[in-house]
Every structure is written in structure tokens, then in C-alpha cells.
UniProtKB/TrEMBL annotation:
Annotation: DNA-binding region: 33-52
InterPro entries: DNA-bd_HTH_TetR-type_CS, Homeodomain-like_sf, HTH-type_TetR-like_transc_reg, HTH_TetR
PROSITE patterns to which the protein is assigned, alphabetical: HTH_TETR_1, HTH_TETR_2
UniProt KW keywords: DNA-binding
Organism per entry: Candidatus Rothia avistercoris
GO MF annotation terms: DNA-binding transcription factor activity; transcription cis-regulatory region binding
Protein name according to UniProt: TetR/AcrR family transcriptional regulator
All residue ranges annotated as the HTH tetR-type domain in the record: 10-70
């Protein structure tokens, strides 16, 4: 039997995660069955279990989203970075909905919670990094005051971003423009 390359295995695993994510988007994590995930992948159960030990492992892999579109740019002010994140979330309704579904699942599935915690932590650290350079030159803080302020601001901005996801996904007649105005007011008063 020919040896399968590592690249092929990664590619196949990514296809399986994409198929599972589509099923989770449609049915939610808990309502989705392994038979539905297997059918969506077009592979056999054996092929799935060559890559994943079970549904929980697939759920954790699916929960890991690509955050590259939320990178800090050196040419933007910190609040412009956050506004760009909000615009990205507004433009990608599937991502926003998937994040809300995943965060809900994180409450009861530790493996998903671990991924969500890691990814929100990364996003928060990017927010803090974007404000750090600006604050060091624009605000009159001692080093310890700056750290305290950045930790507070990181939490506040993360709340703005996660709040958008939750409201855009759950509030009927959600008004994104009003939310953006709220966010701009908060972010620029920092």
C-alpha cells in the first residue's frame, strides 16, 4: 500500500473539519450526529476515525477558526483596528454565526472552551498590542498605570467585539450601524 504524505493527511483533515463545520452551522454541535458529519464528508466512518477519535475532537477542530483577518496593521490607529474587526464580522455573517454557535458550546464542552479561550486570548492580546504603542506616546501613564489601563481596555474591547457577535446572531432587528456608533464612542474615549 502506498504511503500517504503528511500534506495529504493535513488536506484531508481540513476537508473533514470543513464538512463538520457545515453540519454544525446547520444543526448546532449537539444536534449534529456523527452519521451526518460522515455523510457530509463523503468518506467512510473509518476514514473519519483515522483523523479524529470522536465527535468531541472534531468539534474542537471545527471551533478553531482562522484569525488571520484580525491581524493588527502597523498603519492603523488602535480604534481603526477594532472597527475593521467589526466590519469584518458584519461582512461575514457565516463567521459571526459560527462564532456564536461555538461560544455557546464552549460553556459545556471543555475541549471547545479551551479553543475559544485560546482564540479570544489571542484576539485580546492583539487589541492590547494595538493600543500599547499608541498609548505609550499619547497618554501620560507610568509603566504600571499603562499596564493596568491596557488590561482594562483589552477586556472592554473584547466585550465590544464579542457583544457584536452575540447581538448580530441573536437580536432580531439588530442595528449594526447603531452598534458601530456605540463602539466608536467607547473606543475613542479610551
Amino acid at each position: 500500500m502506498p504511503k500517504v504524505s503528511e500534506e495529504y493527511m493535513r488536506s484531508r483533515r481540513a476537508e473533514l473539519v470543513a464538512a463538520a463545520r457545515a453540519v454544525f452551522m446547520q444543526k448546532g454541535y449537539q444536534q449534529a450526529s456523527m452519521s451526518e458529519v460522515i455523510a457530509a464528508s463523503g468518506l467512510s466512518a473509518g476514514a473519519i476515525y483515522n483523523h479524529f477519535s470522536g465527535k468531541t475532537e472534531i468539534m474542537a477542530a471545527a471551533a478553531r477558526v482562522d484569525l488571520s483577518q484580525f491581524e493588527v496593521r502597523s498603519d492603523e490607529l488602535p480604534w481603526e483596528f477594532v472597527e475593521r474587526c467589526l466590519v469584518t464580522l458584519q461582512a461575514d455573517e457565516q463567521l459571526t454565526r459560527f462564532l456564536a454557535i461555538t461560544w455557546g458550546e464552549a460553556v459545556t464542552v471543555p475541549e471547545v472552551a479551551e479553543v475559544v479561550d485560546e482564540q479570544l486570548g489571542l484576539l485580546r492580546s492583539r487589541v492590547v498590542a494595538s493600543y500599547r504603542a499608541w498609548a505609550a506616546t499619547e497618554l501620560d501613564f507610568s509603566p504600571s498605570e499603562l499596564e493596568t489601563w491596557l488590561q482594562m481596555l483589552g477586556s472592554a474591547v473584547l466585550s465590544v467585539l464579542t457583544g457584536f457577535v452575540v447581538q448580530a446572531s441573536t437580536v432580531r432587528n439588530f442595528n449594526a450601524e447603531s452598534y458601530f456608533e456605540f463602539a466608536r464612542t467607547i473606543l475613542r474615549q479610551a
